[in-house]
Amino acid sequence: MTIRFLPAPGAPRRLAAAQLANSVGDGAYYVCSALYFTGVVGLSPARIGLGLTLAWAVGSVAGVPLGALADRRGPRGTSVLLALATAGSVASFLFVRSFGAFLCAVVLYAVSQCGLAAARQALLAGLVPPAERTGLLAHLQSTLNAGLALGAALGGLALGAGTETAYLVVFALDAAGFLVCAALLLGLPAVAPAAGRTAGEPRLAVLRDRPYALVTLLNAVLLLRMPLLSLAIPLWIVERTEAPGWLVSALFVLNTLAVMLFQVRTARRVSDLDSAGRALRTSGLLMALSCAVFAAAALPAAGWAAAALLVAGAVLQADAEMRQSAGSWQIGFSLAPAERMGQYQGFFGTGVPVARTLGPMLLTALLLLWGIPGWLLLGAVLLAASYAMGPAARRASGARGPATGLAADGARA
Fold first, then answer.
1. Contact 7, 263 (CB under 8 A)
2. pTM, whole model, 2 decimals?
3. Are residues 174 and 210 in the same domain?
4. For residue 400, what pLDDT is reported?
5. Does position 339 have pLDDT exceeding 90, yes or no?
6. Could you tell me if residue 200 is inside a domain?
7. Which of 234, 175, 171 is nearest to 32 (CA)?
């Protein structure tokens, strides 16, 4: 069976192009931003960390009302406006010269990004049949990784130059990418706003949906894997193993290439709540095994042996990540009422900023202070959350009634 690397022509391909446009700039931004704010602006790492923590905390809260705005006003127009707001926030980094200005800029950036993610999910749901959504999200994830990799390479050139001008070019590139993203989203067909609230219905109904809240919480736990590759594993390699330092970059490249090449193939196995639950259970097992392998790399051994274990752990982690993503996408969409897709996707998406906000602190404390037992505990927590996700999703589906059942059945078509 052949797997297409490009999504179908029309709306799916335009959504992928929009994803690529902003991810290239983001990749360059992620590589350069910390050194720019410390070396050029003169902020301390502690202040940068505080600002980012506050920003993503605000962003995680803002995603739900901005998703609800997409439901009421239409997801296409809302997505375009939030893409423009993101471009503006990135452009403002060009003029940041104090902590106060930095804090305002990163809060706007985080709020715009979280809102844009929710609105784009609602737009995708309005343009793509249920049976095709998880597959398209897999394409978008592959596109995201490709764009981030390309952007990271461009950011590396800026780091090599090491000048203020080079860093400013990176921010300008990122802002331009979101402008292109907005233009591409504007060219998509309009999706009609959802019907107004019925009498007595709360403005943000998702906040009272306890079964969906449980699914969202479990997903947030599973997303603690996100800071592993960018923070915890690099520190583990340098401080606790005999492996060479360049392996940090190699493992990042390995993960990026794996998702680019195999995320679409992995997602094809997920088509309803049952297959999503199986994917998540398998993901949990692979993630627990990966944690054990990473832990073993710190045992007394030659550098090459530690490196081999780390590569094996990274392969297992990449496989687990792709299965977890596909399963979570299916569950998040299948359980969201069509008329409230934006606010539900905004709520489900809070797992990402929560992982970005709390993950670094939790993982560094757990893994670097506890060492091998910390890795084993992390694996056990992720395994338990992955096994709990299926029953929680079935409970939420039963509580939702026939509407969700239809969404799940549609995904089987």
1. no
2. 0.82
3. no
4. 63
5. no
6. no
7. 171
